[in-house]
């Protein structure tokens, strides 16, 4: 299915508008709109109108996406390798979540408060942790790309988010739709879908 990448992108990012899907999938907006019409005709996605409207994957669409990614993985013979990469991801995941928490909150005088980013030394230490974690993440993704080239898009998005953090954009760490944390969450979702697993498995 030519629209598979659009279906899978929407499956991994959740409910979203066309612009968001196109950005994450790195596709032309017109192509995404065409894909969505095709997928909707097959009952795989649905549109919700209104000020907070957008597109979502139906239960049928989730099942179809699961079948497609499983077939892709088995055709490439990379299931064992991807499972190893997933275990490495789970080792990194607590470190990323802790860094995000420490970026958003700080302990001042024994009290946990919202980080106002007024302490440059504190922020620099947390950013250094993210930089070191990113090196491991990039290596992990490079291994995944050998079997599933679509994961290369995550490498680019993580790098872009990190560059924004290093440039002083506080929200790029964990607080906007293209933040390092949000991209990380989507990698986690993609790995789970690819391996036919649920969170907590």
Description:
By secondary structure, the chain is mostly helical. The protein folds into two domains: 4-71, Winged helix-like DNA-binding domain superfamily/Winged helix DNA-binding domain (Arc Repressor Mutant, subunit A, Orthogonal Bundle); 78-195. It is built from nine helices and four strands. It has helices at residues 4-13, 18-25, 29-41, 59-76, 79-104, 120-147, 152-166, 171-174, 180-195, and strands spanning 45-48, 54-57, 105-108, 111-114. The strands form two sheets. It has a two-stranded antiparallel ribbon. Strands 3-4 form a two-stranded antiparallel sheet.
List the helices and strands and how they pair.
Elements: H1 4-13, H2 18-25, H3 29-41, E1 45-48, E2 54-57, H4 59-76, H5 79-104, E3 105-108, E4 111-114, H6 120-147, H7 152-166, H8 171-174, H9 180-195
Antiparallel strand pairs: 1-2, 3-4
Helix pairs in contact: 1-2, 1-4, 1-9, 2-3, 5-6, 5-9, 6-7, 7-9
Average pLDDT works out at 94
Largest sheet data: 2 strands, antiparallel
Indicate the percent of residues in helices: 55-70%
Helix/strand structural class = mainly alpha
* H/E topology pattern: HHHEEHHEEHHHH
- Total number of domains: 2
Number of helical stretches of at least 4 residues? 9
**Radius of gyration over all CA atoms, rounded:** 18 Å
User: What would the principal axes of the Cα set say about the shape?
Assistant: globular
The end-to-end distance, rounded to whole angstroms, is 29 Å
Q: How many beta-strand runs?
A: 4
Q: Could you list the spans in which at least 5 consecutive residues all have pLDDT below 50? A: none
Q: Approximately what portion of the residues adopt beta-strand conformation? A: 5-15%
Going across the major beta sheet, what is the strand order?
1-2
